[in-house]
Amino acid sequence: MIKSQENIQMVDLQSQYKRLQSEIDAAMKKVIDSSIFIKGPFLKEFEENLAAYLNVKHVIGVANGTDALQIAFMALNLEEGDEVIVPAFTYVATVEVIGLLGLVPVMVDVCPDTFNVKADEIESAITLKTKAIVPVHLFGQSSNMESIMDLARRYNLYVVEDNAQAIGGDYRFKNGEMVKTGTIGDIGCTSFFPSKNLGCFGDGGAMFTNNNELAANIRMIANHGQKKKYHHSVLGVNSRLDALQAAVLDVKLKHLDDFADRRREVASSYDLAFTDSDFIQTPVRADYSTHVFHQYTMKIEQGKRDALKDYLASRNIPSMIYYPLPLYKQEAFKRYHKEGSFEVTEQLCRSVLSLPIHTEMHKETQDYIINTIKEFDT
Hints:
By secondary structure, the chain is of the alpha/beta class. Helices cover 40% and strands 15% of the residues.
């Protein structure tokens, strides 16, 4: 029998903090000593540093990734009943904010290899009411943005990128130009939830845009709809990234590329270990995008997914199913479901399984995970 390991985690945030503790503690102390906890120089510095890293004109910090998505649609001045095309295989936040604003989420199927939405599925769902597309860069890899942007220009549609799982990733256009994910559409949105590749110590999020007018509108909406204090131009919300979280993120931003490299190293070891398996399909890397591996998500074929998950749990190895039930089958979204084929989404919900992956993974721990899966396969 393989020797058991204890305390294996999907993401080891504590070890990452300990490695960066001196930098993070010093940054947080500066904020505490200043007592400037809301807005102020620490948030401004992080926004400017992230904008420079992404090579985008504007970064606006908000309270969380869900707020970022909601404010994006508010900033586009969409009207009740307008349709927004989204992938059926995604996290609930992408779709719930659309419904909350009285818009209509139109779900489409995804690619069987990258799990991301593709242009031909989007185009078949476009109607006279369609106003926007939301490509979700799932698990750390970009959607094919060149084809999506071409489609958006042809039909005069907005593009809001859900970049919560792929910050730091690169997209390569056919002409060789490389740009950061989240900076290609009209607005990019991200989450700084602690387990994200760039995560804070609580809730946090941000929005990116190269459009000056949109940036001004976003800042106004996120600040109670006011440009001038106590003068409210539109109905807004209260959504702020606080200074302590900004300070933590500013430290981690300096390490973001290293975080991605460490995750890729773990992913490559998994790939090599399972290359000869007859029931495991390892993640596909698209040639137009780097992969920052927010999740290492395999497809487990031959109906073995649930048995493998149980086997791993019995040996103290966590795993996750992202996502077990399509959004159109969720009670909250059944009213938006239209007739159509979601063959890939259905298959993915039956077969995907994510393994532990993070920046602090020890070889011994990963070997134990790999050997346990191979033991299951014998």
